[in-house]
Amino acid sequence: SLEDAKNYLRLQNIIYSNIKQSNKQMSFSFFDAKLTKKDLATLSRDLGFYMKSGVTIGVALKLAQSQYSDNKKIGEFLFSVSKLVNEGQTFADALIKQKMIKLPKFYVQSVKASQDGGILDIVLMELSEYLASQEKIEKKITNAMAYPAFIIVSAIIMVGFMLSYVVPKVVGIFSANRQELPAITKYVLASSYFVSNNYLLITIVAITITVVVKFLN
């Protein structure tokens, strides 16, 4: 609200000459924004390092804001969390209440437990190491799956080509000789007609499934 904005500016010792409420609506996306494991690991390491130097989490967030000023997504996330912390929320509660980034549940729960035990800086560093190791493992898995995925895609394209172009020509030979087609050939012919007449729909469905699976992960 307008009053909240004024209070926040006062807390930041910012003097304004004029302030008014915008009529623009907040934008949102269908899928929640996420940080990559690498970005979250780096950010956790930086916050942990700042806190190990003896500063509070509020100061650490401010230092991180200046460091990530060129990254809009992380910058807005840090601003949102910093605002809630300055209003009196704990770091864990601020992570839960902020709406900019969807964080892993284990991450938020680890932060909450570490706050209660007074070891937030240590846990942030450990979370950084854990996320970094997970990122490396995922990269290795992705690289290992690249070749099999290429083979599968190539096989699908080859089968699609045969069903669309080769099979109809072979069937034409049977038809010219007026021979009864075997049951398996009829099945393959039906598949051929389906692929030929619905290739655009099949492509759209395949792309949709790929996108949905990617975002769910």
What gross morphology would you assign? elongated
Strand fraction band? under 5%
What is the H/E order? HHHHHHHH
Discrete helix count: 8
Instruction: Determine Rg (CA atoms, Å).
Output: 28 Å
**Can you give the mean pLDDT?**
80
| Alpha-beta content class | mainly alpha
Total number of beta strands: 0
Q: Which stretches of 5+ consecutive residues score pLDDT under 50?
A: 26-31
Report on the biggest sheet.
none
Percentage of residues in helical conformation = over 70%
**How far apart are the first and last residues' alpha carbons, in Å?**
35 Å
Description:
This protein starts with a helix and ends with a helix. The protein is elongated. It contains 8 helices and no strands. With 217 residues, it is mainly α. Helix 2 packs across helix 3 and helix 5 packs antiparallel against helix 6. About 3% of the residues have low confidence.
What's the layout of helices and strands?
Layout: H1 2-11, H2 37-52, H3 57-67, H4 72-86, H5 91-97, H6 105-117, H7 120-176, H8 183-216
Helix pairs in contact: 2-3, 2-7, 3-4, 4-5, 5-6, 6-7, 7-8
List keywords for this structure.
mainly alpha; elongated; single chain; 217 residues
In short:
The protein is mainly alpha-helical. The chain has helices spanning 2-11, 37-52, 57-67, 72-86, 91-97, 105-117, 120-176, 183-216. Mean pLDDT is 80; it is low at 26-31.
